[in-house]
Amino acid sequence: MALYYSIVFGLLIFEMTLFGMMVFPFPRVWKRAVLMKIDESGIIRKNQYIINVVGFFVFVLFIDSVNRMVRATEEVNQANMADPRTDTQLHVKKFYSQRNMYLTGFTLFLSLIINRTFAILMDLFYAEEELESCGGSAPVQHKDVQHYQASNEKQNQQIAELLKELDDLKKKDRDFDLLKKQANGQSSEYNRLADQHNDLEKIREGRVDELKKDL
C-alpha cells in the first residue's frame, strides 16, 4: 500500500473511532461534557482549513482510484487469458484499484456522517442546556407558539378593557336610575305641595266669601 493510502487508512480508523464515541451509549453527561468542550474550544473551527485540504486530497484519490478501477476492469475484459501470469496480474491490479476506491469512498462518506452527527448532537446538547438554565419549567417555544401566546395576551387585555367599560356603563346606568327616582320623588313631593297649596287657597277664598256675606 502506498504511503498516501496508508494515511487515508489511518484517517478512516480515526473517523470510525470518533463516530463510535459519538453513537456508543456512554453516560449522557460525560458525552455532552466532552463534545461541548471540543466545540467550545474551537479546535474544529481553527483547523477547518486543514480539514478541507485533507478532504480535497481524499476526494482526488477517490476519483483517481475510480479511474484506475475502470481501466483495470477494461483490461481484464479485453486481455488474452492464455497466460495465467497475465491474468493474475490484471486481477491483482483490479483488486487493488477496488480496494483503494472503497477505502477513499468510505473515508469521504464517513466524514460527512460525522460532520452531520456532530452538528445534530451539538444542537441537542445546547437545547438541553438552555432548558436547564430556565429551571426546566419553560420549554423552548416555537415561534408559532410565541405568536399565539402574544395574540392571546392581547385579546385578554382587550377583553379586560371591555369589561371595565361595561362596569362603567352599569355604574352610569345605576346613577341614572337613582337620579330618575329622585326626580320622580321630587316631582311627587312638588305635586303634593301644590295640591296642599291649592287646598289652602280654596279654604282662604272660602273664608273670605263668608266674611263678605256676614258684612
Automatic annotation (TrEMBL):
Residue span, BAP29/BAP31 transmembrane domain: 1-132
Cell location: Endoplasmic reticulum membrane
Mode of membrane association: Multi-pass membrane protein
Key words of the record: Coiled coil, Endoplasmic reticulum, ER-Golgi transport, Membrane, Protein transport, Transmembrane, Transmembrane helix, Transport
Bap31/Bap29 cytoplasmic coiled-coil domain: residues covered: 160-214
Regions annotated as coiled coil: 145-172
Family classification: Belongs to the BCAP29/BCAP31 family.
Job description of the protein: May play a role in anterograde transport of membrane proteins from the endoplasmic reticulum to the Golgi.
Protein name (record): Endoplasmic reticulum transmembrane protein
Organism expressing this protein natively: Basidiobolus ranarum
